[in-house]
Design goal:
- Helix 1 packs across helix 5 and helix 3 packs across helix 4.
- The chain has a single domain, classed as Alpha-Beta Plaits, CATH 3.30.70.560.
- It is globular, with a radius of gyration of 15 Å.
- The strands form 2 sheets. Strands 1, 2, 3, 4, 5 and 8 form a 6-stranded antiparallel β-sheet that branches.
- Helix content is 34%, strand content 25%.
- The longest helix has 14 residues.
- It has 179 residues and is α+β, with helices and mostly antiparallel strands.
- It starts with a strand and ends in a 5-residue tail after the last helix.
Length: 179
């Protein structure tokens, strides 16, 4: 089994409900939830003329390969009605593979660790919440170092929305057979 870290984002519809449903669908597809962060409200990245996002990170145990995980995450996005219209634009769900064990993959259709993880507070804050000492497999630097640097520049772009304990209770109600 591999430990994988997935990031969830939503800025359309019932943002929190959609993220929890995405996690539930991943559990139904055989992933095992290990840890889940709190949810954070964040300003949009890249394309700013859109609603604010909710973001969360979860770690899962997964027994297959990275490309199988990519297929599953894309399938869940499609099941939830994800539409790809504007790069970095509004979306009801976005699931990004941040880390897959300690693998480093640089392919056209899959980059692990996520190509821009070190520049995005909405990845780093929830990631380091659930795993404070996690390291960048490319260089061994702890991700919290990147986070602290970015927080000094702009800590106002992210704020707590829902604590992880509340989310886990809500997820348990949704996913009883899978948790």
């Amino acid at each position: 089994m591999h430990e994988v870290y997935l990031a969830f984002g939503s800025n359309l519809g019932d943002r929190k409900g959609i993220i929890l449903t995405a996690v539930d669908k991943l559990l139904q597809k055989g992933l095992i939830l290990h840890k889940m962060s709190s949810m954070y409200e964040t300003i949009p990245y890249g394309y700013s003329d859109q609603p604010v996002f909710l973001n969360s990170v979860a770690s899962f145990l997964f027994g297959k390969g990275s490309y199988e995980l990519l297929e599953i995450t894309k399938a869940v996005e499609n099941e939830l009605g994800r539409k790809r219209t504007i790069k970095w634009g509004p979306r009801n769900i976005d699931i990004d593979i941040l880390l897959f064990a300690k693998q480093i993959i640089n392919e056209k259709d899959l980059v692990i660790p996520h190509y821009d993880i070190q520049n995005r507070l909405f990845f780093l804050v929830p990631l380091t919440e659930i795993e404070p000492d996690i390291e960048d497999p490319r260089c061994g630097l702890k991700y919290r170092v990147y986070m602290k640097k970015l927080m000094k520049i702009d800590s106002s772009s992210i704020r707590m929305f829902t604590k992880k304990e509340v989310l886990l209770n809500e997820l348990e109600d949704l996913s009883k057979p899978f948790i």
